[in-house]
Design goal:
The complex is a heterodimer. By secondary structure, chain A is of the alpha+beta class. Helices cover 58% and strands 14% of the residues of chain A. The relative contact order of chain A is 0.03. Chain B has a single domain, classed as Response regulator (Rossmann fold), CATH 3.40.50.2300.
Amino acid sequence: MKEGTSGSLSRRIVYGILTLFLVLGVLLAAAELIVHRQYVSLSDELDERIERLNLLQDTERAFLETVSYLRAYAAYEREDLYQQSVSSREEYDRLFHALEHAYAGAVQQGLSGVTELEGLNERFDRYSAQAMNLIGAGDIAALAELSESQGSALVRRMETEFAGLVDMQRERIGDLTAQIRTLGYIILLVTALALIAALGAALLLIRYLKRSFIQPIVAAEAAVGKIERGEIVELGGSSRGDEIGSLLGGIGRMAEGIRSRQYELENNLVRMEEQREELEAQNDELEAQNEQILEQRRKLERTLEQLTHREQQLEAINAYQQSLVGLTDLGDFLERAIGQLLLVTGRDAGMLVFRNEGSKDGGSSESGGPSAEEETRQTILERFGERGYEVLYSGGYPLSAEGFEGEPAGPALQAMRTNRPVSRRRPVSGAEKGAHGAYESAVDTYYPVYDGVGEERPAGFLLLTLYGDRSPEQGEEELADGLIRQFIGALFAQLTQAERQRQNREMNRLNRALEQEKRNLGDQRDATQQVIDSINEALIVCSPQGEILMCNRITGELLDPTFCTGRNFAEAMDEMNDKLGIVADAGDRIRTALASDLDGGRTRYSFEPPGQSARYFEVYIRRIEDVVWGDVRLFVFRDRTEEEETNRMRDEFVSVVSHELRTPLASILGFSELMLNRSVKPEKAQKYIGTIHGEAKRLSGLIGDFLDLQRIEAGKQNYRMLPLDLKPIAEDMAAQWDGRSGHAVRLSLPEGVCAVRSDGDRLKQIFHNLLSNAIKYSPGKEVVECAIRRGEDRWIVEIRDYGLGIPEEAKSKLFGKFYRVDNSDRRQIGGTGLGLAIVKEMIEDMGGAISFDSTLGEGSVFRFELPMLELANPAGAVLILEDDESLGRLILEAFREDGRPAVLFSEAEAALLALRQSPENRPPVLGIVDLSLAGELDGWDFIRLLAGEQGSLQIPIVISSALDPPQDYEEADLETYLRKPFTVKELLALGRRLIEDPPSRPALAIPAPSEPFARASLEQKGLDIRQVEVNSDFSIVEIGSEDKETPL
Amino acid sequence: MKKKILIAEDEMVLRFLLTETLEDEGYDIDEAEDGRLAMDSLRYGEYDLIILDYMMPEATGLEVCRWLRSEGGRNADKPVILLTAKAEEKDREQAIQAGVTRFVSKPFSPVELTEIVHKLAGEQPS
């Protein structure tokens, strides 16, 4: 590693170590590889040799066995020995072949003695074959000879050969083993060498590191230490290119820097020493100066103290002077300014009095306040004897100023007359003494003051009072005079300003009043405008030249926003027409109207923008003489679009009706005329009359429908809404239509009762119309269907046909008047075109709804719904039939309180439906029946229907109301007759008796106290009487014919 | 040779009445149930007189007449009777312009109609 070639220290170290260990590793690996390969070949050979040795030994053993068995066979000629020799021989042959095979490689190399053995073996084969033959022949002698001549020697040779081969192999194995051992030593040696080499390398490395890095770092550390101690150092090795080199270089430079700094510092130190000496000298000087300054300051403080008093005085004057300006309110001004004046002039009390003139009354009320001032004012008035002076300000005096007694002219008047201040000393009054301590006298000074009106004459005076005996000092007096003069001047200015402010206020008041007036006027105008805007007619006021002076809001909505104040009316109209694409001469018509100066004219105007629905107007024109506008024209546009529409519809209706009526009429008239004027054959006459009849019927139906519709639309159709069952109506109507025009009507009805509240006759009409439509519009079909289904809270009736169906465009108009699906096919069908309109109106009037579904060519289904009628269940209960609701509730509650279930109906129809709805085997236990009821049926009808054909009752019944008076009944008894015959209590008792202790068969309890009466009443109602039991005020009657037996 | 008349009327009974009235008078009658069918008949047949109802589906009598006068071929100058209801009288002016020869308003008298037909068809039929 050369110095300076590689900059980075760490990299050099890493490279060095890596290279060292890489070299060592490669060497070690090479050695290991060589030794290993040697070892592998040696051990392979060893294995081979051992295997061959074993084989040799086995072959030898097998050979010896063969020979010995052969010999034994020769000796004993035993067959088994022969067999054994043969098997041994086979074994031997096998092994020998294996041996040959094992040695095959070696033979080729000519390395072994196997070749010789093979030769011997062949000879042995031959020999043994000979021997066998001899033994077989029993020629022992020849055998012995053979054995002598060849055998023994051969065998020995072979043994010797085997032994030789075995020895050879053993020897070789021994060699190999020795070689392997040697290899083991070599491996150990290599490892040891590697370790030694690594150790050496590590030592070299450490030495290198020590020399290259640690020594310089230690030197650097020592150098740094020296530098710290301030010694001078010289560092070598800074020529190195690596980090240490730069580190050492840095340290060296640092040391140099420090050395030069140190030198500088030493120089500075010397200089500073010099400066310090200089400063000390200066300091002495300064201390001396300081003494002087302190002395001066003490002097100044003394001066300042002297000045402060003066300053305070000046401050007070300043405050006073500030108080003279900047205040706008006179009261505030006087309060502040006189207060400050008293302070700065050293006076104790002050008062300002002004002449009170009419125009200045505002001032007094503003400055006035507590009653003390009122008193002072009184005092002054007394003093001056002149009304018309008032106190604007008073401060510092006791509440009552008794001490002001004196000359009426007094010093005040004197001051005012002379126009100069006047001073007077006077004794203080009692009250003043209380307020101002022990002063015996006081000095009053009066100063004349002037008001803002600009007169030269004083308008009042200012009184300042100093309590005590002292007189003001001469200087102070002058100052006070100056300050007072300032006050008088400021007061003058203030009064002038106050006057101006007063005038301003007045002006403002007038302005406000004016504004209020304007607002009132504006409100009135707004109200008027609002009224005009809320009118439904468009109003346009314009000048005779056509300029729009005013128009109301609705104008923009009805016509167009083009019309607005300031436009020319006719031009705006033209512009609107252009804009909306209307071709009209409206603009010219307006010009003409304006030019012709017409008043009270009216005309019609239709506003027909293309693509929009037209609007129709009636236009009134009026001439108005107005104060503001002068001579103007008023145009009123009244929207009569709705009228127009109504008219159009009426015309259309009339036209349609007349057309519809004319067709049957024409036929009737035509055929009858033919018959009257021509001789018609009988069969033809028959046909004509048939046609006339049909058309007359059609006409009659048309008129009937038309009147129906008119009546319904006018709300004059009366409906008798009663509880009823839809089912029998559907059944009746289906039966009526079944089989007509070849159509069967297929009915599909739910179980039980379909109770609704409706008008039965109208319902029949509805069924009739819908069924006839279904049949008419399904020509050639065999069936129409009528079904009733249960909806959530309503019954739904569906009438379905499989006929022509309704075209899409007809669907929306289907329920309209005179609408018939309009194609030639259908014109054959006839009908008035009013049927569906009537049906819809009637169903909706009865609280239902109608709709339809239809597919063209497949048929239609019309579906109407009516609300379900909920009926109480009377099974096992007391059934109360009473139209007076409160009485009914009373009876109901009475039975319920008695622990018996009870239900209440006000109509016999509802009760009958409820009975049909409830299970057959649980009838009510009792009926309480009022004779007059809310529905069509009365109590007798109910009883009759309940009794059925046999006329006998299934349940006991109490009639709760009075019977009709028999014709011969005396009028005197009418009174008792009319009242309800039973009280609720009596009804309950009677009911209980009939339930708990019933007569032999269900009976009727009637309020007839005599048998003839009961008999007469019942027979009049068509009921047979079987037996009567008369009680005090009622009879119990069994009804039903004697001869008929009731099936119970 | 019988005179031939086309009757266009959507109401079956009226068609029946007209046919009965005129057949007995010896005319040969063709019937059409609406305006379109009437035009079809006029296109292929030849008639001495045409009776049109005013209000018919597909095309009104007025429309048929207008068409007949402009494109009717050999029938173009044949007399036309228009059957009208009162409400349609206001269109009389228009109808004359369309080329209607006579108006007969409903309900009509078969006897009067027969006379009109005789007159317009030009001769007394046999």
